[in-house]
Structures are given as structure tokens and as C-alpha cells.
Design brief:
The chain has two domains: about 120 residues, TIM Barrel, CATH 3.20.20; about 200 residues, HUPs (Rossmann fold, 3-Layer(aba) Sandwich). Helices cover about 35% and strands about 10% of the residues. It contains 13 helices and eleven strands. The strands form two sheets. It has a six-stranded mixed β-sheet with strand order 8-7-6-9-11-10. Strands 1-5-4-3-2 form a five-stranded parallel β-sheet. The protein is elongated and about 70 Å long. It starts with a strand and ends in a 53-residue tail after the last helix. Bound molecules: iron/sulfur cluster.
Length: about 350
């Protein structure tokens, strides 16, 4: 569960539903909402816990935030009732809240959070494939915010985002920053990026407050042995992508159970059937933006005043390494400028070892 900083005194408090609101009104407010804040009038009043728990039981998949008169001792109960975050009050000590969240990590009864009771863990372990299929069925048509919140709930502390800091990356990174800006962001530095991409990466991370961008490099010995002149892309682009992207990502991603990507179904024919949750080589891939189309991506850029990649207004709709990327022409799909003139359509990081 995330701890949200107290709001500055000059800022209006969160629009919140009081904990004594009738259930029917709360359900009406939750219908179609991606985020709901419930205000606790007094720490002795447990009705906010009940509301959260019932909303989760009835399938509410958006983000739930608790605010108001709450004590650190109630942290785990908030989490178990289905809350994703709590807005701390001025003067509250985040360390006390964190300590209460960490004090016990074993649960004995099912509740509204994702924690699995001990008896169920022993009785049957859901496979990763089953888990991804369950989540995909639940969130296939959901909004990106709800998908990402679910991913963080299901894989707490074991999730990272993969980003090329390309033409549309700002949308998924903005979403991530709103959810948890300390989430690791893996950037595959192939050594062949446009200089504009590298400066955009730093500018965007700064602007969004991302605090954990990790630069993932090819192995130096492999690079010296397999591509000493940095021109493998001319003769064998599959081998080049394998050396500079696939293997480095495999090593870096081993630390996580789930990887978030910015892929969308509209981008290319090869992505038309993209799932929201899927399994690749024993790891879950989460695609919160899968449902967005080009207009919705553009609308998010405008709504959040996101900076564009410097090459975007020159017709670069999808941006990878400079030797393998060209601007697209009117009527072409967004990824037509990648490995143009060859049969290659994907670099391999989304295909898995079995397909490589
Ligand atoms: S996109 Fe091109 S330059 Fe970049 S790793 Fe793949 S083949 Fe090499």
C-alpha cells in the first residue's frame, strides 16, 4: 500500500466520499470511476473499511485511497480491506506507517486485498499462466489506471517498467509516475540510440519525477566479441537486437516478477490481439495501454501537457535505434518505419526465448 504525502495547506483536500455515505451512493460513485477516495471521520468509525471491502467484493477494480482520521496501527487493516493508498495527515510519520505495514506478512483469512492465506497457499498454488489469464479476463477492457493499480497490487515490490523513451513513452511513464514514481524503469541503452532520445529520457524522467531509471547496457565482452565495429545491424539485425536488447533485458528483468510495457493494439497488425496481462518466459508482462488508440494517446499528451519526443514532429511515430528507424509516411502504421525494407517487425524483447 502506498503512502501519499500530506497535501500542502494551500491545496484543496482530495474530493472524498465520507465513510458514513450509504452504500448505494458509494457504488454509484464508483461505477466507471478509476479512483475513489474514502474519508474516515474518526479513527474509531469502521464504516470506511466496510465500504472498501464491499466495493472490492463486488468487483470494483479502480484505485481506492483512504484519507481522514486514521492511525498507523490501522495500516494493515486498510490494506486488507482493499485500499491501495492512504493520504497521510500533516505531521504523520511515514516510518511508523511503514513499520505497521511490515510487522506481519502472513494472513490466515481471505480479505479484499491480494494477500493469499497460508492454508490456500499450501493447498494450491496458482500458476503464473493461470494468474495472468485471470487478471487478463478481469481487466481486458479496463482503463489504464485500473490495470496498473491491479499490477502493483498483484506484484508488490517485484514490478518494473520497460521504456524506450520513444514517441509515445510519455503517456505510460506519466501513468507510472502517478501510481508510484519510484518503480524501476528499465531503459535498454543499445549504444545506437538517437542523441535526441537520450536527452529526452533525462528531460522526461526529471519532469515526471521518476526516481529509479535504470540504464541497461549490453555485456561489454559480448559486444566486443560479436560486434566490435558496431555495425552488426547492417548484416544481421536479429543478432544485433539479441546482443543489445534481448540478452541485456533478460539479465536485468530477472529481478522482477512482472514487467510493464507501453505497447498498444493499434500500433501494428502484430499487436492487434495484445493481452493486458500475459506470460512470457516465466514472467508476467503488463500492457496497461493496450486498449488506447492514437487519438486517446494524443488526448493524454494534451491533458497532462506532456513533452513530445524531439523527433515526433518529423514523422517518427515509433522510435528505436537510429540505423533501424525512419519517419513514417501518411497511411502507414505507426511501426512501419522500424527495420523498413526488411521482414523484421519486432526486436525480440516481446517475443520470448521460444520465438527467438
Ligand atoms: S534496432 Fe537495429 S541497431 Fe538497435 S539493436 Fe536492433 S538491429 Fe541493432
Amino acid at each position: 500500500m502506498r503512502l501519499l504525502d500530506p497535501l500542502p495547506e494551500t491545496e484543496e483536500p482530495d474530493a472524498a466520499i465520507p465513510g458514513d455515505t450509504p452504500l448505494a451512493e458509494v457504488e454509484a460513485a464508483a461505477s466507471g470511476a478509476n479512483r475513489l477516495t474514502i474519508r474516515f471521520g474518526a479513527f474509531r468509525d469502521g464504516r470506511g473499511f466496510s465500504l472498501a471491502s464491499i466495493l472490492r467484493e463486488r468487483g470494483y477494480g479502480g484505485e481506492l485511497i483512504a484519507t481522514g482520521d486514521l492511525l498507523p496501527d490501522q495500516a494493515r487493516h486498510l490494506k486488507r480491506s482493499g485500499f491501495d493508498a492512504v493520504r497521510l495527515n500533516p505531521g504523520a510519520d511515514p516510518a511508523e506507517w511503514r513499520a505497521m505495514l511490515a510487522v506481519i506478512d502472513t494472513v490466515y483469512q481471505p480479505a479484499a486485498d491480494a494477500a493469499v492465506p497460508v492454508w490456500r497457499r499450501r493447498a494450491a498454488v496458482e500458476t503464473l499462466e493461470q494468474k495472468a489469464a485471470r487478471l487478463d479476463a478481469q481487466y481486458r477492457d479496463a482503463e489504464p489506471e485500473a490495470i496498473l493499480a491491479a499490477a502493483h497490487r498483484e506484484f508488490p515490490g517485484r514490478i518494473a517498467q520497460l521504456s524506450s523513451f520513444g514517441a509515445e513513452a510519455a503517456v505510460s511513464l506519466h501513468l507510472l509516475a502517478q501510481t508510484d514514481p519510484s518503480t524501476p524503469v528499465l531503459f535498454l541503452d543499445t549504444g545506437q540510440h538517437f542523441l535526441q532520445t537520450l536527452s529526452y529520457r533525462d528531460q522526461l524522467a526529471d519532469r515526471l519525477g521518476l526516481t529509479n531509471v535504470k540504464i541497461v547496457l549490453p555485456d561489454a565482452a559480448e559486444r566486443a566479441g560479436e560486434d566490435p565495429k558496431d555495425n552488426l545491424w547492417r548484416t544481421d539485425p536479429d543478432a544485433c537486437c539479441d546482443l543489445r536488447k534481448v540478452r541485456p533485458l533478460g539479465r536485468a528483468a530477472a529481478a522482477y516478477d512482472a514487467l510493464i510495457t507501453g505497447r498498444k493494439r493499434y500500433q501494428a497488425a502484430t499487436r492487434e490481439r495484445l493481452a493486458v496481462f500475459e506470460v512470457l518466459d516465466g514472467q508476467v508482462r503488463v500492457n496497461p495501454l493496450a486498449n488506447l488508440d492514437a487519438d486517446e494517446v494524443e488526448a493524454r499528451f494534451e491533458a497532462h501537457d506532456l513533452p513530445a519526443h524531439p523527433l515526433a514532429d518529423q514523422g517518427y511515430a515509433s522510435i528505436g535505434c537510429w540505423p533501424c528507424t525512419r519517419a513514417v509516411r501518411s497511411g502507414e502504421d505507426a511501426r512501419a518505419g522500424r527495420w523498413s525494407g526488411t521482414d523484421k517487425v519486432e526486436c525480440g524483447i516481446h517475443m520470448g526465448a521460444r520465438a527467438a
